[in-house]
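Something for you to look into today, if you have time. What I am after is a single protein written out in full by you. I want to see for myself how the chain folds. Could you add the entry underneath, on a fresh line?
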Amino acid sequence: MKQMLSYAAHLPTVHFAAGEIIVREGESSGPLWVLESGTLEIRKGNVVVNIVTRAGALIGEISLLLGVACSATVEAVTPCVLRCALDGRALLASNPQVLALVAVELAERLHCMTTYFADLKHQYADIPGLNMVPDVLGQIAERPLAPLKAGSARDPDPDY
């Protein structure tokens, strides 16, 4: 994603102190953020799902592309500098190289997740409850492009 920094060089920089929120889960988003320096924590509910330190990493691309509210909260763990495209859609539409980088990053994440699910299935195939992994993978592969919602038939309104 170092290439992303060069494509974002013309965007304004925004400085965040440790503890400041960049995007909040459930709120609408429009900007596309590019991490220049610092450490970000990604939380889904109260669960930390990722720590991001890689310069060039994108924030806000999922809600931007799907046209849905932010799917996670992103908080600065350390002082951070991010580049901000206030109209993220316009940036993607005007620069096919940026759009290709976004696609590559999302494909890398999907590859990691499906590999992880497959490893879980292989390691814990005999454990009750994990036999649903093939169904989850199938739903991911077949899911229409519609807003995603948290929960399941078993627990439609989970407390994270």
About this structure: The CA atoms of residues 15 and 142 lie 40 Å apart. The longest helix spans residues 96-123. The chain has two domains: 2-94, 105-142. DSSP finds five helices and eight strands in the chain.
